[in-house]
Design a protein that fits this description.
Elements (H helix, E strand, L loop, with lengths): L1 H6 L11 H6 L5 H8 L1 H9 L12 E2 L7 E2 L4 E2 L1 H5 L1 H8 L3 E6 L5 E5 H17 L7 E5 L4 H12 L3 E4 L6 H11 L3 E5 L1 E4 L2 E4 L1 H8 L9 E5 L12 E3 H7 L9 E2 L3 E7 L7 E6 L1 H14 L8 E4 L6 H13 L3 E5 L10 H9 L3 E4 L1 H10 L2 H4 L8 E5 L5 H11 L6 E4 L33 E4 L11 E6 L9 E2 L3 H9 L6 E9 L5 E6 L3 E4 L2 E4 H9 L4 E11 L3 E10 L4 H4 L2 H15 L8 E4 L13 H8 L15 H10 L5
Parallel strand pairs: 4-17, 6-7, 6-8, 7-14, 8-11, 11-12, 16-17, 16-18, 18-19, 19-20, 29-30
Antiparallel strand pairs: 1-2, 3-13, 4-5, 9-10, 14-15, 15-23, 21-22, 22-24, 24-25, 26-27, 28-29
Helix pairs in contact: 3-4, 7-8, 7-11, 9-10, 12-13, 15-17
Bound molecules: 5'-O-[(S)-ethoxy(hydroxy)phosphoryl]adenosine (WTA).
Length: 654
């Protein structure tokens, strides 16, 4: 994918906002000047959009870099900012969440109702012994209770760790153990792909044999009504809520109080617990959500299709929209259930004005044809967002024409779990947008494209993306591993944050993201690590060695392709290559989750290695993408690639 993007960085098409949009837009061109002339003053102004129980006097303390402290002496309550203050301001009757279940059930919560739910939930947590600083694991489908749980944890100053419902019991257990969580909030199940899909059994599996001894209780939301196995730690959410006090006063916590940990894939086998804190995170979440989507809380209906299990669901489902008092849609299910027009039906039903989704989804709709969206009234849409992976210009144009009626500006937003909020993006009333480019750092953000030596490059030169100045929603560390935090992000380019992405500026100075330059893959906008999947593969008794690459894929951006060497004494037991492939794909799904299943597994006799024993993934990627094999001169044994490609060409693998 990066090759095609590189050739497209001479893109000349651009689309100015309409005069009407530009005139009415919240952000005016002066915002860039303002932020540039006094960056910290600018961020302090943004922070003042929040309610501070105790106002801050210091904006940034960078003396312990790279651990930043923003608004350090200020105190606030994140949940109060997302709920109570809107009610107090007289907006209690505004809808906060329109929940749309996959089977078609729906429920709307006003700000007053959502506040009441969160207050009760906060009392439930306290009654279960959860205190400030304790970790709570949340393993839920995309239902309103996911957001309610997050806000309740935040309200009492505890720390949530949301684990995507698609992760396996093993992944759940590792994350619970790493964070030493005291409580899990889960559900019997949720609806996906037209049927009820159980969730509770994975929690039971993760906790069995005292595997997660820190867990004291499991709160279970009833969603599907399917039978569940009950253990002594389990409590029904509805019972606990019914017994809880209704009133709850939100206490103030320091701005740097930890808010959440979110695990993400890195270059090594073990996922990293990215730590975010309160005041700076919420400031940038609210600021970006307001300006990038040109949000009018009184009239807009916003819909972000991300699951709360990912950072996009944290910042642009839970925190940004609610801090801004927006009305949003939350949809539980898959885009094509019960019919392929489901998303467009949701937009028509709620008259969604601001849509935020991922390129993979756009590409899969594109493949189904415009006849499907054309059947629905999408004329309410006024801003379209894209996130998670590079969007190819073809998909961008389709999004603009077919979904946005050639009218709604597209904001291609670059950011990461680590950055906490959007960093690079057009502003819809200001920027002339360009298909495929995220374009410009937001006001307040200093991003650079640098060469190997960390020195900024000129236009039309490819290099690495770095962030040169601290920003409010930056990660404060990796849970339990301060050294890894420094090494991973701050050592490659001294004093600059290294994002792990390749980038280039085009002839206009607009930034194009060129994909990851490390061993992180991006499959359908989800981050996966080659090392993590490799270690899942070698944990199977048949496998002696494994190498995983991300091969470009027209639909999912990248796809996981694995090369495995079987143990000699297991070859017979393993059977045919297609049996091996099936068994190992299931094994990866069990170890990590179905999202990590390799598209293809190739059984090989050798792997290409350098003389120092490092696997040359570049060559394997050539095989996986069906390209001529590149330079093999650094291989320890140059015949290996002939053997591998010979076997592939002979069709010996599935
Ligand atoms: C990629 C998701 C190109 C990038 C918010 C980054 C993008 C990784 C874009 C972070 C974009 C995200 N254009 N690439 N607009 N947005 N990425 O942590 O490689 O799940 O490093 O955060 O996704 O993925 P994460």
């Amino acid at each position: 994918m990066s090759d095609s993007i590189e050739s497209q960085s001479h893109e000349t098409r651009h689309f100015a906002p309409t005069a009407e949009f530009a005139a009415a837009a919240l952000a005016k061109p002066e915002i860039y000047e303002r932020a540039k002339s006094d960056r910290l003053g600018f961020w302090a102004e943004q922070a003042k959009h929040l309610h501070w129980h105790k106002p801050f006097t210091k904006t940034l303390d960078w003396s312990e870099a790279p651990v930043a402290k923003w608004f350090e002496d200020g105190e606030l309550n994140v949940s109060y900012n997302c709920l109570d203050r809107h009610v107090i301001a007289g907006n209690g009757d505004r809808i906060a969440i329109h929940f749309e279940g996959e089977p078609g059930d729906s429920k709307s919560y006003t700000y007053a109702e959502l506040t009441a739910e969160v207050k009760r939930a906060a009392n439930v947590l306290t009654s279960l012994g959860i205190e400030r600083g304790d970790r709570v694991a949340i393993y839920l489908p995309m239902i309103a209770e996911a957001v309610i749980s997050m806000l309740a944890v935040a309200r009492i100053g505890a720390v949530h760790s949301v684990i995507f419902g698609g992760f396996s019991a093993d992944s759940l257990a590792t994350r619970i153990q790493d964070a030493q969580a005291k409580l899990v909030i889960t559900a019997d199940g949720g609806y996906r792909k037209g049927k009820a899909s159980a969730l509770k059994p994975a929690v039971d599996e993760a906790l069995k044999d005292n595997n997660c001894p820190t867990i004291e209780n499991v709160l279970v939301v009833k969603r599907t009504g399917d039978e569940v196995v009950w253990t002594p730690k389990d409590i029904w959410w509805s019972d606990a809520m019914a017994n809880a006090e209704a009133e709850h006063e939100a206490k103030a916590f320091p701005a740097e109080n930890p808010l959440f940990i979110l695990y993400t894939s890195g270059t090594t086998g073990k996922p990293k617990g990215i730590l975010h804190t309160s005041g700076g995170y919420l400031t940038q979440a609210a600021y970006t959500h307001r300006n990038v989507f040109d949000l009018r809380p009184e009239t807009d209906i916003y819909w972000c299709t991300a699951d709360v299990g990912w950072i996009t669901g944290h910042t642009y489902v839970a925190y940004g929209p609610l801090a801004n008092g927006a009305t949003q849609v939350i949809y539980e299910g898959t885009p094509d259930a019960p019919h392929p027009g489901r998303w467009w039906e949701v937009i028509e039903k709620y008259k969604v004005t601001l849509l935020y989704t991922a390129p993979t989804a756009i590409r899969s709709f594109m493949k189904l044809g415009r006849e499907i969206p054309d059947k629905f009234d999408l004329s309410s849409l006024r801003v379209l967002g894209s996130v998670g992976e590079p969007i190819n210009p073809e998909a961008w144009m389709w999004y603009r024409e077919v979904i946005g009626g050639n009218r709604a500006p597209i904001v291609d937003t670059w950011w990461q779990t680590e950055t906490g909020a959007i960093m690079i993006s057009p502003l819809p009333g200001i920027t002339d947008t360009k298909p495929g480019s995220a374009q410009v750092p937001l006001p307040g953000i200093v991003a650079k494209v640098v060469g190997e030596d960390g020195v900024e490059l000129g236009n039309e030169q490819g290099g690495y993306l770095t962030i040169a100045e601290p920003w409010p929603s930056m990660l404060r560390g990796i849970w339990g591993d301060p050294e890894r935090f420094k090494e991973t992000y701050w050592e490659r380019f001294d004093g600059q944050y290294f994002a792990g992405d390749g980038a280039k500026k085009d002839h206009d100075g607009d930034i194009w993201l060129l994909g990851r330059v490390d061993d992180v893959m991006n499959v359908s906008g989800h981050r996966l690590s080659t090392a993590e999947i490799e270690s899942a593969l070698v944990s199977h008794p048949w496998v002696a060695e494994a190498a995983v690459v991300g091969a470009s894929d027209a639909l999912t951006g990248q796809a996981v392709v694995a090369f495995v060497i079987l143990r000699l004494d297991q070859v017979e037991a393993a059977g045919s290559d297609s049996d091996v492939s099936r068994v190992l794909r299931d094994h990866v799904a069990k170890e990590i989750g179905p999202i990590a299943k390799p598209r293809q597994i190739m059984v090989v006799a050798e792997l290409p290695k350098t003389r120092s024993g490092k696997i040359m993934r570049r060559l394997l990627r050539d095989v996986a993408e069906d390209r001529p094999i590149g330079d093999v001169t650094t291989l320890a044994d140059t015949t290996v690639m002939n053997i591998i490609s010979g076997k592939i060409a002979a069709g010996a693998n599935d």
